[in-house]
Amino acid sequence: METLGTIISVIGALLVICIIIMVHELGHFSIGRACKIKVTEFAIGFGPKIKKWVKNDITYSIRWVLLGGFTKFYGEDEASDDKDAFNNQPAGRRALAIAAGPVFNIVFAVIFAVIFLVAFGEYVPAVSEVWEGSAAEEAGLKEGDIITEMDGVDIDFYMEVTAAQRRSNDESIHLKVLRDGQEHQMTIPKRYYERIPEANRNGRTDEQMEVDGVKAGFTYWQEHKPYGFFESIAASFRWTFSALRETLFGILGIFGGIFGAGMPEGVMGIGGIVSELGMALRQSLEYLLKLCAVINISLAVFNLLPLPALDGGRLVFIGIEKLFRRPVPRKVEGMIHFVGFILLFGLMIFFLFRDVTGMVGG
After folding, report:
1. Where are the beta strands (DSSP E) in 103-181?
2. Which class does domain 122-225 fall in?
């Protein structure tokens, strides 16, 4: 029964990924057609076709490898005299059709954010412990304080603490906290600790008491915050922006890791994403909705990177055309995108291998 449940959850996860990809491709497809650009094929997945049909001279197909998809515009990578071909459209129309895929994903991320904020709320950082005799205690920080700003970063959601930590130093931490409806500001100098003060043991083992570092003398945790419908609409844009920012840092960290800077924690390939989606499908609707929002955002950000074969790479070529008043030869651009696709596919296989070996090893 457990094996059957795992298989069902994996199939469900692949269907979720397929739907998210379809949203992306529907962006290209619908805006491309609205811009009068000729579409030759709309496909979900890669590889051999499971099913295909033709309507209004457009081939629609579903393929076996449900880890991608594409919208094929006529004249996208080759020269054509057809007035409706992609290469004969004004640069603005081409840019709109290309950017529409990521934009659709971001719009759907906002929709998912509204849904889970209304249904489940979100989490904010709250002070869970103030160490006895610490600078935090001397500054007046109290257990239960809600952190609303940290080192100049406004914090509406717990995940924004990561952005604040990137600004942190070993000297002090500046906080704004909310306590009983009143806002308080404080700057807390950091001190070196070998151990957490014994008065704050709270059931910790000796090993857990060891900290060996510069600390402000307090800890925080996630406190639940509910949202009303209209409040959630406004908050969804802030949540999406924060998730976009953290996703961008994560993706840039991947390329830093490839070139020797060390892979950031929490970065997953398609295998890890399928595993997380499968777990969410079995255990938590809240996490599933949030994960769908994050995957939409990740797909949008990744596709907007200025790399060959990605939407961002195609936008770069349009920018070059506008700058130099002539396009890069279509065959040259097509070959660059093809090589880029092969490299990106290799990167995807690398992460899949890493995810699978990690699961087996774990």
Report:
1. 122-130, 146-150, 153-154, 172-179
2. mainly beta
